[in-house]
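Narrative of accomplishments. A recurring question from our advisory board has been how the design workflow behaves on a single, concrete structure rather than in aggregate. To address it, we present the structure tokens for one chain from the evaluation set, followed by the sequence designed for it. No filtering or post-editing was applied between the two.
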């Protein structure tokens, strides 16, 4: 895809470099970028391409969005990735010839984009997803029979990462097509755990369309077919499906089903250590996050339950950033509905600090920021800046 050139990144780069206790020489060596280029970027004498920005961010250990000036939109790269993804989707069953890395290298590349998804670094995924998906489609079409299932599983994981970008940025048609590719690859993986993962992800179609009762039925059918063994992977697969079923039941207003699935998720979570299984975080902490989500989905009499849990427990730092950010977004909505706008705004700011790209593109963040802005017209500079950052309406 074409590279974007960003300008005005110098002050941010210099700040992050000093925070990392690196000299310009050390950063240049670590990033593999010419020292003169680092100096010119920091002095504002040249722009920085998307690729170089990512390389420097990797060397600093930060998300590329942290190096962008306030006037630049960090999601520009996401929108630039869309044509490349559409090209992959148009020819995945008969891909063009091209280079393919070996299976260990592909595993490493996919593990990287999965890590970026869990930490809500969507711009990094956008930079690599089109090329990676194209390469995996080529690899699948030429794989030896002994490797075919493994490559198909990798394609499922990479599709999930790309879909997270499309779905979070409102490209619903592209997301649906990526889910179709994900399902096509899953059929070739011949793995019931992969099928459970795909069922979990495909439910986002019903969240987006607000066909919650249908989504609940789909998840319950997936649970009927999920592996029933006592392996950690199988327990986590069923637990994740129950967590998602609890939330979508809550959105459907079905409190009995929501709490039944939440109880099942809690029972399975108590048998496992918190971790990432088949690309999904699951365990006791993830279930607690979903308790808040279910309470917010049900609303009214259930809000006190969400607020009580949040007073007693906070998500640990080792929980994936996207999930921690989601907890504070849900909590912010509960606080707003409970008549605590100041606390709600603090929760939204925490969500932003944890995973800025996730918070910025979240529909509830925009809605709640707009509501808060209308409620607090007089003392609103910080709030106005936040609302503008996440493209919220509700200006005075």
């Amino acid at each position: 895809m074409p590279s974007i050139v960003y300008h005005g990144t110098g002050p941010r780069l210099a700040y992050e470099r000093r925070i990392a206790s690196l000299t310009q020489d050390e950063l240049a060596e670590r990033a593999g970028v010419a020292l003169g280029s680092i100096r010119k970027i920091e002095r504002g004498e040249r722009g920085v391409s998307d690729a170089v920005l990512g390389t420097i961010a990797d060397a600093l250990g930060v998300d590329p969005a942290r190096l962008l000036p306030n006037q630049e939109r960090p999601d520009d790269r996401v929108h630039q990735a869309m044509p490349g993804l559409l090209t992959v989707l148009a020819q995945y069953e008969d891909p063009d010839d091209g280079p393919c890395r070996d299976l260990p290298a592909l595993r490493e590349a996919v593990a990287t984009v999965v890590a970026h998804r869990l930490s809500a670094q969507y711009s990094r995924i956008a930079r690599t997803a089109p090329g990676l998906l194209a390469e995996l489609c080529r690899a699948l079409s030429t794989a030896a029979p002994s490797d075919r299932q493994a490559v198909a599983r990798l394609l499922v994981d990479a599709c999930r990462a790309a879909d997270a970008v499309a779905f979070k940025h409102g490209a619903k048609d592209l997301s649906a097509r990526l889910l179709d590719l994900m399902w096509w690859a899953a059929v070739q993986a011949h793995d019931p755990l992969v099928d459970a993962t795909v069922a979990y992800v495909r439910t986002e179609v019903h969240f987006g369309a607000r066909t919650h009762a249908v989504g609940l039925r789909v998840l319950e059918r997936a649970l009927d077919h999920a592996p029933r063994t006592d392996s950690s992977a199988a327990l986590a697969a069923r637990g994740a499906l129950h967590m998602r079923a609890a939330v979508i039941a809550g959105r459907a207003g079905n409190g009995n089903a929501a709490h039944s699935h939440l109880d099942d998720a809690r029972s399975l979570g108590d048998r496992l250590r918190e971790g990432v299984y088949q690309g999904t975080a699951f365990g006791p902490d993830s279930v607690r996050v979903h308790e808040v989500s279910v309470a917010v989905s049900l609303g009214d009499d259930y809000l006190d339950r969400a607020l009580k849990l949040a007073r007693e427990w906070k998500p640990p730092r080792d929980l994936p950033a996207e999930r921690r950010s989601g907890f504070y977004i849900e909590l912010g909505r509960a606080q707003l509905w409970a008549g605590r706008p100041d606390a709600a705004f603090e929760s939204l700011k925490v969500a932003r600090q944890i995973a800025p790209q996730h918070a910025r593109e979240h529909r509830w963040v925009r809605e709640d920021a707009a509501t808060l802005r209308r409620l607090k017209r007089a003392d609103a500079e910080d709030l106005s800046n936040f609302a503008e950052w996440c493209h919220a309406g509700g200006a005075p």
